[in-house]
Amino acid sequence: MTGNPPRTLFDKVWQAHVVRTGEGGASLLAIDRHFLHEGSHHAFAQLAEKGARVARPDLTFGVADHYVPTRRGAGQAIDPAIAEMVERLERNTAKHGIMLFGLGDPRQGIVHVVGPEQGLTLPGLTMVCGDSHTSTHGAYGALAFGIGASEVAHVLMTGTLWQRKPKTFRVKVEGILGPGLSAKDIALHLIATIGADGATGHALEYAGSAIRALSMEGRLTLCNLSIESGARCGMIAPDETTFRAIAGRPFAPKGGLFEQAVEAWRQLPSEADACFDREITISADEIAPIVTWGITPEQALPVTARVPDPARETDPVRAEAARAALDYMGLAPGIALADVPVCRVFIGSCTNSRIEDLRAAASVLAGRKARVPGLVSPGSSGVKRQAEQEGLDRIFREAGLEWVESGCSMCVGMNGDIGQPGERIASTTNRNFKGRQGAGVRTHLMSPAMAAAAAIAGTLADCRPFLAGRKP
Amino acid sequence: MKPFTRVTALACPLPIANIDTDQLIPARFMRRTRKEGYGPVLLHDLRFEADGAPKPDFPLARPEYGSAGFIVARRNFGSGSSREAAVYALADFGIRAVIAPSFGDIFAQNAVNNGLLLVRLPEDQVEQLLVKLAAEPAEITVDLERKQVEAPGLALPFTLDPVWRTKLLNGWDDLDLTLSHRAEIEQFMAHDASSRPWMMPDRSV
Ligand code: SF4
Question: CB of A64 closer than 6 A to ligand 1?
């Protein structure tokens, strides 16, 4: 009988980190984990200008991912301008005594894959990174969000960050997901339903039986895409699946400390009668394998549908947006999505490059040949080793796809892995924005199984027939 | 940071929704340092043809908008990547405020941290402004003290987070404020380290 209102997962993590609340309601939060990557150079420049030191190097970790070459075997030439970006990160982290998982480190990978893999991502933590997909780590019940360079500099200098408390928004997904479907389909379905700004200003919590049933990999994919609906972050209450995934990870607590942590983590889930500012429920059996047809993740439809006709859109602003999207994408209204030919596939990115994603793609590709070229980039060097142990690399290679090293690669193309203008790419990434994968490139977002199906069909394709009779 | 009180300047209409930060600054330009300036590459692929010639049908590419101080755009402006360079590009071009129905959250925070004002107006008012600006290039005034956008024949009040407004009016950044609470932060962290010892990364292996 404390008289305190029942709290949500988000409320609990937030309140535990408030150092003080300022005038006007912004709170100064203590930050438990801060990840850096090559893009942090602006923040280090701000630090250098002020002659400041890093307040919490013990909680700060650097990862080389955005610019790393994915073809980096012996004798492979590296563009000096790109090498300089990786070296700048090496210099900056070394100067401030920050641990770096750099090029050549067996722990290197995409920051949002490495954090969980190394046991740096834990329930109940506040986590930030100068990268919008930091929302990924919320899959463990952490409050994790992307920040800009000035905020990166602020966290480096103080170990804290001013934040305005977002509103809360619970998305319940109930029921059982159909065969061949994955967290990617849940996420794209949600974004298409609420819009690319549908959760702006909100902290999402994913709940319901379909979420509980997701593996850690699936939960990471779902939380990763929270930002594509505009949400500040996405969270999932930690449970036995979470604890099992953490136990034994290199930087995770061990022994008695682990037991103590699990005790604390069990207190985190939202209380039964906690109130959310908004709430929606989605029935899992309404979700179909989804592809995007436009230039924002909200422009998404089941692969069995047809390209929409802007003339039928009643809202003039939406109609114009659809027209502009179809113009960029080179698509005619009314054609079946499954008839749209693709030029290339990409399987990778912090959204879909974990071992389970690679297994899903491999189960479609095994014993088959891709009709189009494609690139498979595992999410971390660790994922790469595991995939090779399982023989997945052979399946990709035998299908005709290129198996390369880990990095952001074609998700953003900063390392030079880009498509040609006009090329249409079936991609497991998170953004189908104009030019994201290279100037003039047309991106269709989808799950790993769907990208693998597109590789075989040479068109956008439903993965389900390809999975019939196979282990999902 | 330049304080923002009352600014009168040319407003460039961009009747486009979802102008994400990849549009505002394509990834390939992000190796630049701030000193090199991001203004010339603002909205690069929308503004310029592959050969570098300005695209005549894109308003911001027209010479008359070279001195624009405002952009008026449709919903979800600045969504996507957290790249602060998107704000650098706008600021370095000379844009002091963007007016739209909604903005990406991280972009909005980055904007405040660089003295760029984001004005949220209801969709119908933004459409009204866009129609006016499409008819002929016009100067408008954004008054942050009175929280009002003034265009010929229009006065549109807006609201803004009070903390952000104070920061923008004064050109303040957070750091000095935070450092004034240093003792409190250290105390919090010391207490936290003893109550959540499992939080520290285990470096023993
Ligand atoms: S994989 Fe893509 S979205 Fe993820 S961190 Fe890298 S660039 Fe960002």
Answer: no
